Amino acid sequence: MLDVSVVVSGILILLYHLGKFYSPYFWQDVVAFFRIVKFGYKCHRCVYRKPPITLLDLFLAKVQKHPEKPLVLFGDETYSYRDIDRRSSQLARVLRDHVGLEEGETVAVFLKNVPAYLWVWMGLEKIGSAMACINYNIRAKSLLHALSSCKAKVLLTTPDFKAAIEDVLPTLKNEGVQVFFLSEDSPTEGVEALLGQIQSSSAEPLPISFRANITAESTSLYIFTSGTTGLPKAAILSQRKMLIASNLSGHLGARPKDIVYIPLPLYHSVALLVGVGGCLEAGSTCVLRPKFSVSEFWNDCRRYRVSLILYVGEMMRYLCNVKKTDSDRDHCVRMAIGNGMRADVWKEFLHRFGPVQIYEIYGATEGNVGFFNTTGKVGAVGRSHFLYKKLAKYEIIKYDVDKDEPVRGKNGHCIPVTPGETGLFVSKITGLAPFYGYAGDRQKSEKKILRDVFTKGDCYFNSGDLLMEDQEGFLYFKDRVGDTFRWKGENVATTEVENILAPLRFIQEVNVYGVPVPGHEGKTGMAAICLKKGHSFDGQKLYAHAKDLLPAYAIPRFVRIQDTLEITGTFKQIKSQLVKEGFDPAVISDPLFFLDDSEECYMPLTPQIFSTIAERKLKL
C-alpha cells in the first residue's frame, strides 16, 4: 500500500514542475503575491487602528529600543535616534508655542540634504502638521506657486537661500506666510533665526493629544512633481501612503543593520520615503550626502560601510562612465533601490561593480499602483501577472502620441495593447488604490483621471507614462507623454521653461521639448524659437537669462531657429515631429545652436560638433 505522504509529496513535486514548465516564473509570482498580501495587511492593520500606528510611532519605538544607535551620518557628524527624537520635540514645541502653528496646518521646508530635514519631519508629525517638501532649485514664481498651492503657513529654510527668499519675501508677508531660518543668526531683515530657541526648548516627549485628530487619510506630506501646467504640483501623501512607501525597502529585503546611502535630494519621494522612511521603519542608519558626487560616491560607500544605495538611472550611468580602478569592487553594497536605469547601464554596473541586487521600482509619487522588479530581470520595472491584477487593477492602453490622447474604439472605450506593444499605463482608482490628487486647483487632479475607460463610470489614474509588457509579463518603461520629459533624474515641464524664456526681447514664440542624446538617460531640453522681426538670435543673452532663472537640468541644451512654429487646430504647439528630427544638422536645415558651457553662450551646432556628441566625446 502506498504511503500517503509519499503520494502527497509526489503530487506537490509534479505541481511544482508543471508550474515551472508552463510559466518559468509561476512560483516566483505566487510567493511575490503572498508577500504583497502580507505587506499590505501589515500596513492596513497599522494605520486603521484607533489611534493609528504611523511612521512616527514606528520611529519612537526604535528610539526606545536603541536610543544611541546612529540614525544619520553626515560628513563627520553622527546623530543617534535619541538625538533626532529630542531635537524634533524641541522644534515641535517652538512651532506650537512661539510660532502659533496648529494641528493640520502646513509647514514648507526649503532645505538641502541636512540632518535638520529629519528632525523637522518628525517634529511636524508630533504636532499633526503636514510637511511640504519644496525643490530648492525653484525660484520666484514657481516658489510662490508651490507655497500657495499647499497653503503653507510657515517656511523653514537656511541662510544658504538668502537671495531666493528675499526675492519673494514681500509677497510671502502679504500672504501671511511666516519665514524662519534654521540658524543662530539671520542675515535678512524680517526673517527670524529659530535655531537658538529650538536648542533652549524642552526636549521632553510631547503628549499624543497634540496629534489627536490624525487618521489614516490625514495629509502627512506634499511632494512636488512637475506637470504639464508648467508649475509645480503638490502631490498629497496620506499617512497610509507614507507608511506603505516607507515599508517598501523592508519588503524588498532591507535589514536593521543596513547602512543606507542617500545622495538624492530629500524633496524626492525615493530619497525621503524609501530612503529615510525605510530607515525609520526598519531601525537602520542612513548616510546623507548634500549632493551626489561621482568622484566621492564609492569613497563614501567604503568610509561608512554602506550596504544599500538609492539611485536614479542617470546617477548609475555617471558611475559607469568614470575611469575603471582596481578598487571598483572594494565595497559592501549588496542592494540598490531606485528607478530609471537603462538596460545597458544595468549590465555594465553589475559587470564592473559586482553582484549587487538591483531592485528597479516604478510608480508616480501621486500614483495609486506601483511595481518593483524582484526577479533581477535587466531593464524591467516590474512584472505583470494575474495574481497581482487581483489586487491592483491596471492596464496598458493604446495611445496616440501625436494627438496626445488615448485611442478609443467605436464604443468609446479604451483599447488594451497586445504584448510587446507600447501604450499608456493606467490604474483603476478604488478604495484599496485611491488617488489623492494634488493640493490647490482641483482641475489639476481631474486632468490625471481617465473616465469611462472600459465601462461607463469607471475611473483610472493616468500615469502619463508609456510602458510595454513583453510576452513573459515583464514591464518596461518607454517614455513620458505630453509636455514633460526627464533629464538628470528630474522631471522638466516644458511649459514652465517656455514661460521663462518667452519674455526675452528677441523671442516671438518658443516651443520647448525633450530630445534623446546618445549615451544619456531620458531626454535633454531643446527649444525651437521663432524670432521677432528685426531681431537676431543672441546666444549669450539666452544663456545668462536661462542660467539665472532655471535649474541647470531644465536649461535647454539645443536651440533651433524657425520661421514659424507649427500648431494644431486648437492652438497647441506640435512637438512630436520636432522630437523625431532631434538636433542633427544633416536632417535639419534650420539654424541650430548648442549650449557651450565653457563659452557661456549658445554656439552654432556644426556637423563636427554633432559627431562629437553622437560619439559621446562631448559631455552634456
TrEMBL record:
Gene Ontology terms: biological process: bile acid metabolic process; long-chain fatty acid import into cell
Substrates-to-products reaction catalysed: a long-chain fatty acid + ATP + CoA = a long-chain fatty acyl-CoA + AMP + diphosphate; tetracosanoate + ATP + CoA = tetracosanoyl-CoA + AMP + diphosphate; a very long-chain fatty acid + ATP + CoA = a very long-chain fatty acyl-CoA + AMP + diphosphate
Keyword Oxidoreductase assigned: no
Bilayer-spanning residue ranges: none
Predominant localisation class: membrane
Top-rank taxon, per record: Eukaryota
This protein's UniProt keywords: Cell membrane, Fatty acid metabolism, Ligase, Lipid metabolism, Lipid transport, Membrane, Nucleotide-binding, Transmembrane, Transmembrane helix, Transport
Family, similarity comment: Belongs to the ATP-dependent AMP-binding enzyme family.
Protein name: long-chain-fatty-acid--CoA ligase
Species whose genome carries this gene: Podarcis muralis
Recorded name of the encoding gene: LOC114582000
